[in-house]
Amino acid sequence: MLADMIESIAKILFIFGMNIGFFAPVLGWVERKQSAVMQDRIGANRADIFGFTVIGLFHSIADAIKVLTKEDFIPTGANKFFHTAAPFISLVPAIVTFCVIPFGGRYTLFGHDVNLVISDLDVGLLFIFAFSSLATYGAVLGGWSSNNNWSLIGGLRASAQMLSYEVAMGLTIIGVLMVYGSLKLTEIGVMQENFFRWGIFMQPLGFVLFLTCAIAENKRAPFDVPEAESEIVAGYFTEYSGMKFVMFWMGEFLEIVTISGIVTTLFFGAWHLPFITDQMLLSFFQFAGSNGASILAMLVNIATFFIKVIFFIWMQMTIRWTLPRFRYDQVMKLCWKMILPLSLINIFITGLVFLR
Amino acid sequence: MEASVTLKKLKERFPGSILETHSHRGDDTAVVKKEDILKICTFLRDDESLLYNFMMDVTAVDYIGKEPRFEVVYHLYSLRYNRRFRVKAGVPESDCSIDSIVSIWVSANWFEREAFDMYGIQFKGHPELRRILLYEGFEGHPLRKDYPIKKRQPLIGPMN
Amino acid sequence: MSDITKDFNTEHMVINMGPSHPVTHGTVKFLTTLDGETIVDLKVDIGYLHRGFEKMCENGTWQQVIPYTDRLNYVSPLINNVGYALAVEKLIGIDVPERCKYIRVIASELSRICDHLTNIAAGGLELGAFSAFLYFVEARDIIWDLIEMLCGARVTANYVRIGGLKNDLPDNFKEKTLEVFKKVRSLWADVDKLLTKNRIFIDRVKDIAAMPPDEAIAYGFTGPCLRSCGVPYDVRKAQPYLVYDRMDFEIPIGETGDNFDRYLVRMEEITQSLSIVEQAFDQIPPGPINVDMPQYRWQSKDDVYNRIDSLIFHFKTVIEGIKPPPGEIYSAVEGANGELGFYLVSDGSGKPYKIKVRPPCFALTAAMPRMMKGRFIADIVPTFDMINMIGGECDR
Description:
The complex is a heterotrimer.
Chain A: H1 2-38, H2 58-69, H3 80-96, E1 106-109, E2 112-115, H4 124-145, H5 149-180, H6 185-191, H7 199-202, H8 204-217, H9 229-232, H10 242-267, H11 278-284, H12 289-322, H13 328-354
Chain B: H1 5-13, E1 18-22, E2 29-32, H2 37-46, E3 54-62, E4 70-78, E5 83-91, E6 97-99, H3 108-119, E7 122-124
Chain C: H1 2-7, E1 13-17, E2 29-35, E3 38-45, H2 53-58, H3 65-70, H4 77-92, H5 98-126, H6 130-151, E4 160-161, E5 164-165, H7 173-196, H8 199-205, H9 213-218, H10 224-227, H11 235-238, H12 259-283, H13 301-306, H14 308-319, E6 327-334, E7 339-346, E8 354-358, H15 360-366, H16 368-372, H17 380-387, H18 391-395
């Protein structure tokens, strides 16, 4: 019982530490630095502590201090309750969804069974969808409650776009579910131990469609029409400042991490290295004793998982800094006329191949 | 000389309306009666041998102390014949108005508004003759020669 | 269907786009009436950068106008300098030396390249292609280095004088320019790859705000926007000034006059301008750069300090200004946006009696409502960029 609690607390701390303590600030830095590299610039490099700049990493700390000390501004005529609630509504789902994504396999440590997922739900995938659709409310309420026409347009765009892509995203996943026959993310992960059973080989079209939908769902460029700064100022968060603005911003970054986590779990073998089964890994580390082998294998798996996640984060950043923005109607057309039919075709083909 | 074709045709067609012509530095110019500006402009645009299809510029000049005080100046360009032409019409201060040529060239719209804004010349028949570069509530017309260069304008406050 | 919509109490949303809005660079206000995302009505409100250019000119001497012209189209100030100087020279009736003409062509084309680079860069930025923006801004920056080398300033050039130039080409200018052009060409190729065949970019700009040629002419379009409609009108070809008749260049034209054609025309004009500059370097003769008419153009400082007649002329031209004979002229050059015309009236005194600038983007901006009605609000972004309204020039 105590061991279970310790295990849970350790996992929660690890994931939250990883997300809020590591990914959120570091992604802010990555976004600056990567775009700078892509655009022949130097990027943020001025914030320093005792003369050490650490290639601009301290900017995240400076930013944190800045937003915490900034005035929390609520425009006149705004609905105070919803204006305050909106950033929370969009941040919380982004944090919560990560708790069903497994970041490692199952290990026996000192006779205790450790499962590296915070909550191993049977309906893990549905849980993710349920929560990520909650984030829509954040954008819509933020847009509506700000008492600003640009925010309102942004909120409307956000609601239409996110709802549409929710539908399409759900359908792109069906193929994966048919292949693995499970909604439980740990099971899907286990089934990808064999390199040739990775989702990308079983569902190549599903992968492309899902990634597209996921980026659109997250409202990142080239799908950032709800916050298109050149058209509607900043969309639904025009009137936000300080910590509330950063909550929207963090929600967006954490969702990048979550998307990368889901993509890794569903399509890229979760925590597995290619061609290496869990058994091989354990026997390789046999020299450290049975517990030591488990710990080492666990660390290798966690590292593998997060390296994959970082790769997909990098990929999303690259896409964001390469492509121009869609127009609002084109985003919707892409969803309903391209992705939706293609994902239906994908389901059909999957059915023909796997459910004979 | 090819350039004076326009002047010749114009004099033939409107002998009574052309008050004066010159070709200073090669710029063909006709000073016309302001009552006939619409007729003359339509002719300049539509005549097969002229075809002034570009209305490049409308402006006004304030010759203070002379009569008529203002001159509205039109600059035309013919793409087909690669010619430029200038039409001028005197506008006296007492009857500070002239027919609008927006119906002939759409591009005259904003240029006439600017001339109105700066010189206070009324363009009759203009679809929306209001100030363009200056704000509603500005007093006077700044490019008139009798507008003092250091004049202050009153504050108008928010427009709601 | 109509029964359902009748019960909806819908109304149009009137919304101010600008004067301080990310897309309205140059400070302009669009009063848009929206039906959802569709623009029902659009009114353009300009004048936020009005500073009384013409009134200022009437109260200075003819030479004092040149710095003001820098501030007209501040993205390509050298073309304005050249246009104004040519207009005054036409009014006086003087012809500048050959070398001066070539240097003016080089200066104009460098400016034109800068203008087009800025325009396309800003277009990319507003459509979300931030990388393309920075590539072209880098290209513009190294060309500004050249302009700085040429006249000491990057933006407010103030380089051309009536009857000549401020100074001759600096040493090694040709070598430096050719070196810079190599880099500009490679950046041009990068942006070409990033945008020209980019499906998202094409979707955003193609078939938006198309103008048929006759309508474009009626609205007074000139420059790249007119040429994109398929009308090959370019002042440099139609009425060659300076030495453009000796240059071998093409004027690119489009077909439909939509934003994509405007973009393509500008991209091609950059390469044409690069080649014009290179040709000018090959042909440029040695010789003086100023006319030898002391009543219009100062003599060298050496003479002014050592010869009494030069000193008198210098004093007279500085204090009283040069005195063109009475008369009126209209002179046009091909600005980066279209025909940049100057209408000058002289009464024979040292001050201009009247200066009217015909800003190319004034007519283009006036056509915004025509191009935007019935379109989406997001279409304002590429359209307003591609007509390239420059506040300093439009509002004067």
